[in-house]
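From the shared-data thread, chain only:
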Amino acid sequence: MLNRNSPRAIPYWRLSAFYFFYFAAIGVMLPYWPLYLESIDYNARLIGELTAILLGSKIVAPYIWGWIADHHGHRMRIIQVASLLATVIYAGVLFDDSFLWLAVVMMLFGFFWHATLPQFEATTMNHLGDSTHAYTRVRVWGSVGFILPVLALGFVFETLDIAWLPVFMLSCLFMIFVASMLVPEGAAGHLHLASESVWSFLKKPHVLALLGGCFLMQMSHAPYYTFYSVYLEKSGYSRSFIGNMWALGVIAEVLVFIFMQRLIGCFGLKSLLVVSFILASVRWLLIGYAVDSVAVLIIAQCLHAASFGIYHATAIQIIHRYFTGRMQGRGQALYSSISFGAGLSLGSLMVGYTWDSLGAVFSFTAAASVAALGMILVWRGITLDTR
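Structure, as tokens:
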């Protein structure tokens, strides 16, 4: 349960609302942004480069904002200001669609947008206190927020021009800002500055193993996040079907979040993390080699419960154990920067250059190999009390 006995206790729905709208924005952007870019005559290389630019800002932005939050406090104020600026900057998409313009907009937008989630994760984990196992009960609303626009827009874009995508995205971004205003600064629970530097944490082999594994896991997701929608559309599937597939993956994620506390109690964090890497490899092979089979695609999407749901829920709790006190903000920021930032950015750039020349099967096979390498690193390198 939430730490309701704390003087900074706030209603559960305020935390959940932020996750709902944040991931609703991802539900608009992730499946349909590549299709939007394709509709304005962008090829795979340019789509990969724009995706890499957007994600590349996540390499530095979370850590910069995490350092500011850990040193000066006001974590929620940072989230609120960054959310507002991200909304204003993204509006630039409406004014021009040239590559240089979109590249600048994506870079600046990403710098502020990527500042918000790691700091809100730190706020949520701190607010939960000793009940960190209840994280998934709050985070599950992010999954619900993702599902709704993915399903709705799949049908909407069957009849409405996908040029309307930026308008839907702006609506979600504005609601993120509104939701952030509902969470008081006291929820962040700022602590005394830790005496250790972040570099002292990075010298620890188990920390490096975890962050390295997370880097590889998200790198393996690059073909999926960047070209899954394009791949399905080229294979003859409708946009409503594409939306249903994205939604199915997140529904599976929601179900695993519901039972995550019990799974951790039975198997421990490390075992579950290792399994998530194994199943990620299987998932990419299924998508790459069996795109013509609806049944196999359904199975592959159900494995999102492992490749993201189990992976993220376990990784974020291990990060919370490794980075304590006022290092929490920078710990979550490093996790976000290295995995969702550097891993996805490098992966998106590479797949953008190889997608047309080497094909989808090669890209997903390479992704499976990268996930397998991450599994070995985590299995051999993570050491902690996993129960």
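The mean pLDDT is 86.
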